[in-house]
Amino acid sequence: TTAPVAIVGAGPAGLMLAHRLGRVGIECVNIDIRTREEIETTHRAGIIEAVAAQDLVDTGVSDRILRDGHEHPGVDLRFGGQSHRIDFQEHVGASVWLYPQTDVFIDLADARARDGGTVHFGVTDTEVGDVITEQPYMRFTAADGARHEVRAQFLVGADGSRSVCRDLVPEGERTQYFREYPFAWFGFMTQAPQSAPELVYTHSPHGFALLSQRTDTVQRMYFQCDPEESVDAWSDERIWEKMQQIVAGPDGFTCQEGPVLEKTVLRFRSFVQQPMRYGTLLLAGDAAHTVPPTGARGLNLALHDVKVLAGVLQRAVGSEGESALADYEPGALERVWRAQNFSYWMTQMLHAAPGASDFDLRRQMGELDNVVATRAGRTYLAEQYTGWPSDER
Ligand code: DHB
């Protein structure tokens, strides 16, 4: 078959791109090696910036985020055993939405099904190529065993941090920028009441912890661990001991405890591959760049990429042809590096590096103090965390 746009990946980036293109009459085919159920049940971050939330509603994906999501007008930075609230509304007149990425995915997958989009989940033996021609291809075996070939005008790699599409750019034509971190996150769900009304990002000599939420009775939490840590080594009792140790302080704050439901070690790094476009191939979302999770930029950045890309592809499929593709990277990359910086900055400011000295820890507290105690610092964090206004330079 043929399609104007073939999209490798049916996570939020790939599906939102297909949705945006579908609205202007451009039909795409998405494939994903994961089943719909696998994607739906893989926990990811839960913070959506206001513009991205509004886009889900305004482009007709769904308004469920307004009903099932929760508006968060601020965030808590905790260090030295004390909480410091940063009020986003006061400083930048914006909020974020707590709405799990899995729900964003469900809304997008439902919208594609409702609108008659073609999405193949659970494919195998994917092959992609011919991206320096005007007819790139995507071949795959669908879940029912049938082999398919899609010839397209444009091939989009929205296939996540283990992208195969990014390898279509020859080594001599690409640069990969990355940074590893000497720690990881131990993530878990717990059946417990909320410990605080908003998210709590905690710095302590015992490491970082983040208290996030899912519902009134289920909470999402993370604490800093060794990248080689095994989840089996952590009983509920040991997890809570660690969490309470990290958040403890003179204000008496504690985590509300409950049974621990799911445990995973999340390794992370910072990564960017440039260029984001090569011939008729375009990379979007994690395929082009990944960020450490601190600050929840990953999904928001991916959604920004595909907003730019949808406009560019609309022009390219229309009268302008391939020359329109030149506008993709300039439109997307600035935010990529801003988000790289913010995610890196939050990560280094809040985690205790292995072997950190007392000087290092106190310097971090000085940095945190500069953020929470000055209007400029609070405004800076609020602006970065809620997403940047797209028209500002
Ligand atoms: C969540 C994850 C993050 O990485 C973050 O910065 C905020 C929230 C979450 O899972 O809810």
Automatic annotation (TrEMBL):
<dbReference type="InterPro" id="IPR050631">
    <property type="entry name" value="PheA/TfdB_FAD_monoxygenase"/>
</dbReference>
<dbReference type="Pfam" id="PF01494">
    <property type="entry name" value="FAD_binding_3"/>
</dbReference>
<feature type="domain" description="FAD-binding">
    <location>
        <begin position="3"/>
        <end position="342"/>
    </location>
</feature>
<dbReference type="InterPro" id="IPR036188">
    <property type="entry name" value="FAD/NAD-bd_sf"/>
</dbReference>
<protein>
    <submittedName>
        <fullName>Putative p-hydroxybenzoate hydroxylase</fullName>
        <ecNumber>1.14.13.2</ecNumber>
    </submittedName>
</protein>
<dbReference type="GO" id="GO:0018659">
    <property type="term" value="F:4-hydroxybenzoate 3-monooxygenase activity"/>
</dbReference>
<keyword id="KW-0560">Oxidoreductase</keyword>
<dbReference type="InterPro" id="IPR002938">
    <property type="entry name" value="FAD-bd"/>
</dbReference>
<dbReference type="GO" id="GO:0071949">
    <property type="term" value="F:FAD binding"/>
</dbReference>
